[in-house]
Amino acid sequence: MDSKLGFFMGISQCRxxxxxxxxxxxxxxxxxxxxxxxxxxxxxxxxNEVEFEQRVIFRVKYTYSIYNSMTSLTLVVGNKNYSSWSxxxxxxxxxxxxxxxxxxxxxxxxxxxxxxxxxxxxxxxxVLLHNEITVxxxxxxxxxxxxxxxxxxxxPAAVKPRAIARSISAxxxxxxxxxxxxxxxxxxxHAPCSEVIPSxxxxxxxxxxxxxxxxxxxGKDGDFLFGTFTIADAMYAPVVSRFMTxxxxxxxxxxxxxxxxxxxxxxxxxxxDAKDETETIESYTNPVD
Length: 289
Prior knowledge:
Largest sheet: 4 strands, mixed
Number of strands: 4
Distance between the termini: 77 Å
Radius of gyration: 22 Å
CATH topology of the largest domain: Glutathione S-transferase Yfyf (Class Pi), Chain A, domain 2
CATH architecture of the largest domain: Up-down Bundle
Number of domains: 3
Strand order of the largest sheet: 2-1-3-4
Number of helices: 14
CATH class of the largest domain: Mainly Alpha
Shape: globular
């Protein structure tokens, strides 16, 4: 039997293999089949299974990217002056060049909770709406986007830095409660702290250690933690804002990194929008001492 005909007859098995290789939980069958057929047309000799799989993986990712670029993305965010969790996926999506509709809901206002619950089952922002799918929580949104747009450089390509990028992103998501409480994000003010309590200083020390180690180990080819911008930078961008607001002293490596984050055009856009807002949230204006 002709090798192409053999592969054609085994498309179902090949699609399952592609699913495992690419990592999709629910791949759209028609797109996978299209990818396989395109590779069958391209290759003169399909007997080399390794080359065939590599071609198919590339085609699947490319086809999914085209498909997803035509679908509807909406991100629901809170006040840009205060909502650090909203900033994280918003900044990552902007940096990756995704087009999306933005819905801003001012928080802690009359009717805010009911309006947020129209989109979010938790009553919190951010929330991503993608066609008929709703995803909430910043890290879950980023994980979902990585799956839906696998051709985009959300994470470092190499295994070790990729693992570390995921780890420090998760650490940002789950840790640093004292920093959050005592130094809430507030872009419109500048309130240098005359004294930093030990628990907050411990959070600052850990964060700056992460920044230094990533920059010195993985970031030499660019301005960000892993050279090029990744979700890890998006996760720590609100911390950069906090450090600027409260006058946290940084060493040269961390200061240079903070400047690079603030220079990102999307970050500048967010900051400009935050300064134009008129709502005030008292607990963010007068944080706990």
